[in-house]
Amino acid sequence: MSAPHILVIGAGVGGLAAAIELAAAGQQVTVLERAAEPGGKMRQLPVNGVGVDAGPTVFTMRWIFDQLFETAGSALEAHLRLEKADVLARHAWRQGAVLDLYASTERSEQAIQEFAGRENALGYRAFCARSADIYETLREPFIASSRPGMLELVRRVGFNNLDAMWRTAPFSSLWSSLGDHFRDPRLRQLFGRYATYVGSSPLKAPATLMLIAHVEQEGVWLVDGGMRAVAAALRDLGLDLGVEFSFDEGVCQIIMEADRAVGVVTEQNRELRADQIVYNGDISAIGTGLLGAAATRAVKPVMPRQRALSAITFCMVAKVSGLNLHYHTVFFAEDYPAEFAAIFGNGGITDYPTVYVCAQDRGAGKVPDGPERLLLLINAPADGDRRLRDARNLAQYRDKALALLRECGCELEFEESSCVTTDPRAFDERFPGSGGALYGRANHGSMASFARPGARSRVKGLYLAGGSVHPGAGVPMSAMSGRLAAGAVLEDQR
């Protein structure tokens, strides 16, 4: 009897993780990907003949990838060269202040004391303890498990441990809870930015997201070759296990028979049959009928008002002067709430948006002598399917970003041909159904974490993976979603 044939739609990190888990379990796996290479959002763009990371730049929660490689009979170190970051990120403000956070909480506490005084340093110590407590409470019962409802999560945590569940603070906003720890508004900005890691506003996201602080303290890793190397390593691991990859071949229809997903039709008009299908893409593509009307009942699409953040990114090769960048540097203006009021209120971008810069040729103390690869990112509304921005508007947003950097003491010098811009419209085209949202549904409100679908869709034979499903957005979470989807596939075969 031949092994079951599983089709994986999409070679993002969720699809790659699912393919590896399934192949390691003896399944026959085919991955279909509309792009020319694996990675999904983990991609590079060519700028002046060099590749610049244009998507995720932070590698955390290494244990998820260690487990994945071990499942495949290999080790992460055999495929990737990683460097643990000493400085997690540098932060700069228009007023001239600069603060580094370190992998060492003791060094960070000392830096915060010098930056904002002893009271805020003690607040940071309490914040770290609270973050670790939330993370330990939710790691196994929620992050590494199939999607539970609220009552199911309480059961998993344990009815005799309800105080730990209460301490995850799902009914408080991240912004208000940060006020319990920090009097300095700049520190609320810094740690409030964790909400943007899942495409959300710190004013509306639950305080549960404080756990991200502990995730970073467990280790932020710099990947030799950038995040694209992670995708390539996962592809190679899949190939070693016999996974078949078909790139430049997207899927335009999921074939349904007797209320069950049984195959796909590709954009090359090729029909492929399968025992089960794992879909690694934005769930709204299914829910809005982009993969055929028959499959729409599999999942509800994310409505425009529910969408998470998008972004405008500028991949460039530039000469940097003034403020010394670290690999990760964040530039802030004064009014952080105004940024999210603009995006989630009227679909605009504030005059001084926060700017994230990834200086990809830095790390381990390296400072390039000449031009270097940079990714600049500002938050934007996910309106890629509703609003067209012309080149003049995009230039205006770049000017806003550069103005903030300049007022924080950092100057960039580059040629126009050395900058490639991507806006929400381009993200929507690359990730159909998303409207440009990079994280699926915004994590707003106490029940938002339970609104994402789990690995099993409402259609038999069709499973879900990726950043728009449980356990959420981000590279490690997407990888976990792929592992959970593979587990559901194997469980349903029994």
Descriptive notes:
The protein is of the alpha/beta class and 494 residues long. Among the domains are: 5-42 and 225-302 and 445-492, 3-Layer(bba) Sandwich (FAD/NAD(P)-binding domain); 104-218, no CATH class. It has 15 helices and 20 strands. The protein has helices spanning 13-24, 62-71, 105-116, 118-143, 150-157, 162-167, 174-178, 185-192, 211-218, 227-240, 283-287, 336-346, 391-407, 424-430, 475-492; strands at 5-9, 28-32, 44-47, 50-53, 82-84, 87-93, 98-102, 221-223, 244-246, 251-257, 260-266, 271-273, 276-280, 310-322, 328-332, 355-359, 372-380, 410-413, 419-422, 462-465. Strands 6, 7, 14, 15, 16, 17, 18 and 19 form an eight-stranded mixed sheet that branches. A five-stranded parallel sheet has the order 9-2-1-13-20, with helices on one face. Helix 1 runs parallel beside helix 10, helix 1 packs parallel to helix 15 and helix 3 packs across helix 4 (118-143).
